[in-house]
Amino acid sequence: MRARIKKAVSTKIEAIGLPVLALCWVSFFWGTTWLASKEGVKHMPAMQLVAIRQFLGGTLYVVYFLFKKTPWPKGKQWQTILILSLLNFVLSNGLSTWGVKYISSGLGAILGAIFPIWIVIISFFKGEQLSKLAVSGLLVCFGGVCLIFYDHLKDFLQPDFSFGIFLSLIATLTWAFGTLYTKKKAASFNPYFSLGLQMLVSSLFLFALIGATGTTIPLSEIPVNSWWAIGYLVVVGSVLTFVAFIYALQKLPAEVNSIYAYINPIVAVILGAIIFGEPLTLFIAAGGIIVLVGLYLVNLAMRKKKMIP
User: Rounded to two decimals, what is the model's pTM?
Assistant: First the structure.
């Protein structure tokens, strides 16, 4: 009897422990990918870096599932994969990576975390009524963003900085559309295989785009630092952390799993200040905390709305 109880307890701890460890991995390492992107785009075109990263990451996924003889998607599943590859990888990932070429990695991470605000705004324009909690969260977020940019008011006169902010905001908007589309088109198709195909398809599109526009440099001219950044983004960002993210998503409640969105920017801001010497002023720190509080209120309002029959 004792052996059975011990085995049952051990199994339960393992069942809870592994998803929590996966969530901790996502919370920390996705924050570090902002720094890797910043380092990578210092010496090469951002979209070329994204194309190479997603081609290598997507290829690893696809080769693995081909080896496992996993069935290919069928019919409308391809439509979902194509749309998500455009929204999540060509636009969201591509533009956010391009954005950190002109702004700090910490600032890019904070802006990247505000996508739930777009979800609420999109829902409002679709005719859905906003709760007082959601409106409060939006106002708190807006106040936090104003505080963050207090030290950057003069920077907006610089075209590069303004362009980086614009790219980052559009990236969060497309990620919000991708999130809503994923919920609408939730499919039974293997999510990991789908992820790999999305990466691979998006990379082919990006290679065609940068080839047509001439915004590339020869592979031999890409410096070692950028290759190390690409390797880190592929192995840690595109493979290990995405696998951990989907695993945690399947095993943990949504309200627990969403914690990563609050920790990622903190990791990026702190490491950006330590490694790259990026500014970490009182206004940025306080504004970042206020933004995260606002995002918590917005997410809380969205969860309460789901519970209403």
Answer: 0.83
